[in-house]
Protein: NBD/HSP70 family sugar kinase
Organism: Nonomuraea angiospora
Amino acid sequence: MSHPRGPLAQLRRGHEELVLGLLRKHGPLSRGELGKLCQLSRTTLYDILAGLVAGGAVVAAGPQDAPRGRGRPAETLTLNPEAGQAIGIDFARRAVHVAAVNLAHEIVGSASEPHDADLPWEQRVDLAERLVGSLNDGGLRLGALSAIGAGVVGPVGWPEPEDDPEPEDDPEPDEPAHPVQPLLRERFGAPVLLDNNTRLAALGEAIWGAAAGDRDVLYLRLSHGVGGGLVVGGALHRGAYGLSGEFGHITVDPDGAPCDCGGTGCLETVASIRAVLDAYRAAGGRADDVPELVKAIRAGDGAALTLLEGVGGTIGGVLAAVCNAIGPSVIVIGGELAETGPALIEPVERALRAQVMPVSRHRVSLRRATLGEAAGALGGIALVLHESPLLSRYPAGPDLAPDLLEDIKRRQP
Amino acid sequence: MSHPRGPLAQLRRGHEELVLGLLRKHGPLSRGELGKLCQLSRTTLYDILAGLVAGGAVVAAGPQDAPRGRGRPAETLTLNPEAGQAIGIDFARRAVHVAAVNLAHEIVGSASEPHDADLPWEQRVDLAERLVGSLNDGGLRLGALSAIGAGVVGPVGWPEPEDDPEPEDDPEPDEPAHPVQPLLRERFGAPVLLDNNTRLAALGEAIWGAAAGDRDVLYLRLSHGVGGGLVVGGALHRGAYGLSGEFGHITVDPDGAPCDCGGTGCLETVASIRAVLDAYRAAGGRADDVPELVKAIRAGDGAALTLLEGVGGTIGGVLAAVCNAIGPSVIVIGGELAETGPALIEPVERALRAQVMPVSRHRVSLRRATLGEAAGALGGIALVLHESPLLSRYPAGPDLAPDLLEDIKRRQP
């Protein structure tokens, strides 16, 4: 599938979106009803409909019940429930997660697959394509794909401040925001919106998950990396250079271990999956992954419980500091390590309540995430659909490719 | 001055604001010109004008140059430059700061006076009234006062979450948000908008001060208390229960000194004026107040420099943590302790740059506040005028008395 540019192609896409929007709103309609509602000429409408049917976006439904004595019943057209409108992809450190919504904005399905941390981007995109192909029992059609919302680890490219004293650290301005962007665009033939994957998970939880409806949310993800996202005053927060929610790089021990970020003693050096498993093994425990650690905890293993007590206390202290600064009403904890349950969450909560300002102590609610590993991919879909009020003021930075964002917005009904 | 309620009084105030708005926009106008612009009946207009002139809001200017041969030149009317439209008052821990703007939204002046920490509210309001009376060489008239924006120490009352497990800590819902509110309303006969005084200082600095024009700002005030405020994504941030910006109560030493907030080892126990002076005296220094400490620093006193190096490092560490969480582009440091200059600010900056995520290191700018002790009072005025885009989405909580806020908004031209 390709997305030709130019005014005529844009006009055509506008007409397509008009027709798709009417079908989304009204359900199955006959050609005659569509003609009355869309106000396009009969020739134009039939041409648009032929394209949508050929592309798989629209299918013929059964004939409507027509009034008696008026000839044969008119065929009606409807959205193809197997036509994807938006795909969300979370390129996590060691896994790819995908999800898709159809033209009716219903979630078609989600899928995940782990991989090695050093898998090249080309192959991660292969994996994403395969997972997308498996959705909806392999019946998902991409003929009406509006865009892809993709999350990647770490800060997504953002313009340099003027007079940056160390510009050599950063990519050239003409380069794509991230190497996966051109790969995805080529593979799926659709615009690609990029953002930090953990921020997208925060968005997903704040729209559909543990914090649905809350206006001030702190989301913390404890996974191979430690990060998070913020909803402040009813809006997803990005930060001046897209660098917010980096709770994993808050220093918890100035004399601690070196961190991948270049800092020292960051929360991530204590509370990532690797850090916790390493510490558990150093304490004589045996676990190669989080499920094994969870088993040890359920068996009442003392070393595991003591370790998580300490890690939870450190996490709670960081959350208390951030709470005092920002004042959320809800804290959501997600990521694989949250699967350790009360063994981790209870010490987190104790330290949080002990260190947050006493006046805030009973005003913040701590919750487990509910969307599981699909949260980031679902957040990517939310970014594409751009319907959540949480995004109504979300800035469209250069890496969000404003022309594409405009394009997508215009194509939303 | 009183503000009668009821639909007729509201209608009249609406007419008054219409006339005042026209004079603000166009400058001096004759009665005839006003009549054409405001579309009110001649009787109504003359009645409104008589009230505004009697109240001191409007004064007669010299006659306009009239076209020749058209009889005597018409008298023009203009805004009284000595008529205050809004007053801002910062009730700090040990001082009252006031500022006022006239009907043309020009700052008429500001004034401050220190007092003992235990001065009763009644007398603080006396002091505020005296200071307001001194503005504009004592010529300020309050006949057109729209409202008072007042800042107070600590969180301003906010609704309880449901099922609060310790409701006895908090004021009754029917009580005013703060004891100063009814006192001010009675004394000045105008609606009172209340907010945290440090958040108002942040607002002032972000509108007119060191961070004017920036959309992501962290303001830290080092005074008798330590607190701050946030502008996130171009909006003043309040937090779920009005409890944001409490940087002073972030724990810096879990084994540290008890804090007034009920916590232990908060930043405020290390970086408040009292904490710094106490530590200086404990190190053999002699200073009863910040100016004396500044003198010691200028004289190169080793104990003072070593102390501020340590305090600055602690402050910088807290700022780094908050930066990683929120991603501001500008940090503004205000409050009396900032007067110690580079002796404090340089170690703050070193610790900040050492502990913030390396990728953010050159993206955040550290600045001294520029509005001095008037910042909070100016922020109170900004709250009343409600013209800054930073306030366009500011929530009107119950303590902001929504009916009053609506009233004030309606009265803005």
In short: Confidence is low (pLDDT under 50) at residues 159-173, 396-405, 407-413 of chain B. The longest helix of chain B spans residues 302-326.
